[in-house]
């Protein structure tokens, strides 16, 4: 079992270093440092709340579903972060390239990734064509977390799973 865990950790670290160090570019530095905030609390709450309060029809319903999914998804995130206190990559790997004001709480799972994935599926369910924009956007936010040195790939994968599950269950239970 420990061989499997070591193998996984080795390959995850390699993937992290590739995204964080190998694909560095001036344009990507600025792009990812801006887009990452779409997964933050302010953006996800404001977008969902505005749609719920000011939207009409399916957009209004999607806004309420997104708020519910966002709330529900962060319960397991809070529990897991306390139970499995994983250090952020930049605290473990000194060569990590980081942006301004790096977070210091635990990295597993990614809260930004959880948040963005928790709010997109109600909007996709309401307007399926939005999947062409929202799913790549959510994946880009997730990738930004690795690029900025704040998360390992598994942090983002688990965040994606938690957010997507909360979102899809909310949409299914609503209907």
TrEMBL record:
Alphabetical keyword list: Cell membrane, Hydrolase, Membrane, Transmembrane, Transmembrane helix
SUPFAM superfamilies: Acid phosphatase/Vanadium-dependent haloperoxidase
The UniProt record lists the keyword DNA damage: no
Membrane topology: Multi-pass membrane protein
Keyword Transmembrane: yes
Domain Phosphatidic acid phosphatase type 2/haloperoxidase: start-end pairs: 61-171
Gene3D superfamilies: Phosphatidic acid phosphatase type 2/haloperoxidase
Pfam family of the protein (one): PAP2
Subcellular location: Cell membrane
InterPro entries on file: PAP2/HPO (IPR000326), PAP2/HPO_sf (IPR036938)
Spans through the membrane: 35-54, 61-80, 115-144, 156-174
PANTHER family in the cross-refs: DECAPRENYLPHOSPHORYL-5-PHOSPHORIBOSE PHOSPHATASE RV3807C-RELATED (PTHR14969:SF62), SPHINGOSINE-1-PHOSPHATE PHOSPHOHYDROLASE (PTHR14969)
Protein name: Phosphatidylglycerophosphatase B
Gene, per the UniProt record: pgpB
């Amino acid at each position: 079992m420990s061989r499997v865990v070591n193998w996984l950790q080795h390959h995850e670290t390699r993937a992290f270093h590739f995204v964080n160090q190998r694909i560095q570019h001036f344009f990507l530095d600025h792009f990812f440092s801006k887009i990452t905030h779409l997964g933050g609390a302010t953006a996800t709450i404001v977008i969902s709340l505005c749609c719920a309060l000011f939207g009409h029809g399916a957009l209004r319903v999607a806004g309420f579903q997104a708020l519910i999914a966002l709330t529900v998804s962060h319960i397991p995130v809070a529990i897991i972060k306390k139970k499995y206190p994983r250090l952020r990559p930049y605290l473990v790997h000194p060569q990590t390239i980081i942006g301004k004001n790096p977070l210091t709480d635990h990295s597993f799972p990614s809260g930004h990734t959880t948040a963005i994935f928790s709010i997109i599926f109600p909007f996709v369910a309401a307007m399926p064509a939005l999947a062409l924009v929202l799913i790549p956007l959510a994946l880009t936010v997730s990738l930004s977390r690795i690029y900025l040195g704040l998360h390992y790939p598994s942090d983002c994968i688990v965040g994606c799973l938690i957010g997507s599950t909360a979102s899809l269950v909310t949409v299914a239970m609503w209907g």
